[in-house]
Amino acid sequence: MIKGRVFKSTGSWYTVLAEGKFYECRLRGKLRLDDEKVTNPVAVGDWVNIAPENDKEAIIKDVLPRENYIIRKSTRKKKHSHRLAANIDQAILIVTLAFPRTSLGFIDRFLVSCESFRIPAVLVFNKADLLDEEGLEYYEALKFDYQELGYKVLLVSAEENIGMEELKAVLEGKTSLFAGHSGVGKSTLLNLISPHIEQRIGEVSESVGKGVHTTTFAEMFEAWEGSFVIDTPGIKELGLWDIGNEELSHYFPEMREYIGECKFHNCTHTHEPGCAFREAMEEGKIAPSRYESYLSILEDEDSHR
After folding, report:
1. For 143-194, how does the pLDDT look when each residue is reduced to its tens digit (9 = 90+)?
2. pTM of the model
3. DSSP state at residue 66
4. Which residues, other chains included, contact 284 with Cβ-Cβ below 8 Å and sequence gap of 6+?
5. Which of 3, 36, 188, 277 satisfies CB 3.0 to 4.6 Å to 158 for a cystine?
6. Contact assessment for residue 42 and residue 6, using Cβ atoms and an 8 Å cutoff
């Protein structure tokens, strides 16, 4: 057996780079049963042991222990989860304030997911060229809020090639997951960063302001030597997986310092008197939009809002 890394997953076949060459791989049956509550027992970014059958094909025998992974509820199978990627250094969320507009609720759900797996997250606001003066002021306000929480925030334009050097610097020497709604420009940005990637590019529907899926499977690319990016299909909904209501506040950095300060030890931070969270929000220490995201997740509302 030889050790390799999964670069592409189509659901039934996996492209694995091992000892300098790519193999098209299948799973041995037992692996499918081991993770029966996960739709993909092997994810892009996984390190695996493979047994070559010939120069082009191999069998995946084992998945090696993961340093981390990022996961969400499966959109197709109830009570199942789906891994977006494994063994990553950071998650890059591509968002847009116009055409299409990414909701703050979606951004916050993604950040909670990253926090729960201790994966650093970067917010990249694309389509700067579409922002008017009011839009730029709104971006600056969001940038301030998220930077105060410890997140790196960039403003870029794939259309006008703005901010590419700053984005490249963030990716240098790391394995980075690229995620976001369809139509926010993930594939266009990847093509600009490293032209040999050549991802297909879709358009945004004029009528509904939403993107068309062009990336159908997760795939990793070596943007340049030592720097890897994982492109993922556009996320319509981001259902959080296995995060209990009592632990949710731990994944909001600005809320962590108030844990244990409420009047009641079993406070849900929704209506109880003497709630430290709500008092902090009323004093301007927690952004109202973030508190709304917290409540939305508690109520498990539609995750694309």
Report:
1. 999 999 999 999 999 999 999 999 999 999 999 999 998 889 998 899 899 8
2. 0.88
3. P
4. none
5. 188
6. yes
